[in-house]
Prior knowledge:
The chain is α/β, with parallel strands linked by helices. It folds into two domains: 3-120, Rossmann fold; 125-219, Winged helix-like DNA-binding domain superfamily/Winged helix DNA-binding domain (Arc Repressor Mutant, subunit A, Orthogonal Bundle), CATH 1.10.10.10. It has helices at 11-23, 37-44, 60-68, 84-92, 105-120, 151-162, 170-178, 186-202, and strands at 3-7, 27-30, 48-52, 75-79, 97-100, 125-128, 131-134, 139-141, 146-148, 209-212, 216-219. The chain has a five-stranded parallel sheet with strand order 2-1-3-4-5, sandwiched between helices. Strands 6-7-8-9 form a four-stranded antiparallel sheet, with no helix packed on it. The chain is globular and about 50 Å long.
Amino acid sequence: xxxxxxxxxxxxxxMELAELxxxxxxxxxxxxxxxNSKAHILSARPDLILMDINIPNLNGEQLLKEIRSExxxxxxxxxxxxxxxxxxxxxxxxADDYITKPYNPTILLLRISAVLKRSAGSSSVxxxxxxxxxxxxxxxxxxxxxxxxxxxxxxIFRLMLDRQGSIVTRDDLMTALWDNDEFVNxxxxxxxxxxxxxxxxxxxxxxxxxxxxxxxxxxx
Length: 220
C-alpha cells in the first residue's frame, strides 16, 4: 500500500483529502506542525507528497526546493493559484506534477496513480557517453560526481536514451510523462528538458540534447 503525505494547512481540506485517499486504498499521513516541515516529511518516508503551495513559514515551492536537496520523493503540487509562473516555478524546483483547486477528485487520483507508476522504475544500470545511468536511483554519475534526476527528468532521459540518435517528439515525451494528453502542459515539459540539459552539461555532456525545430529532440 503506497503512503501519501499531505501538506495542507487548511484542516477541513486536509481531512477531506485524507479520507479520499484512504477510501482509494492509500495509507495517509499529514503535516500538522509547520515549524520543521522538511524533517517531519522526510522522517515519514512517504511514497508521494501532495503539497499545497500556500502553507505557513516556508511556502510550498521553497519547501519543495529543500526536499529536493535531499530526496527525489515524487511530489504533486496543489494550489488555488492559476498563474502559469507558479506552475513553471514548481516544475523547475522538481515537482512531478501540478494540479489547481478546485480539482476533480477523479483527476487527482489519476495523477497520483500515474506519478506512483512512473516512480516504480527498474533497477537497471546502463551507460551513456561515459556516464552510469541508474534508473532505480534516478541518478547519473561520472565516477566522481553523482547528480540526481527528478522522476520526470529520468523519464525524458530514458525515452531519449532508448531512441538515441532518433527524433523523439514532444508528443512522445508528453505521453510518457503524463500517460494522457489531457494532462499535458507544454511549459512544464520545456522546463524539465532545460533542467536535464543543464545536469548533463554539468557532467561533461554539453549539447547532448539537440532540438529539431517543429520535430522534437535527439539525444546525441
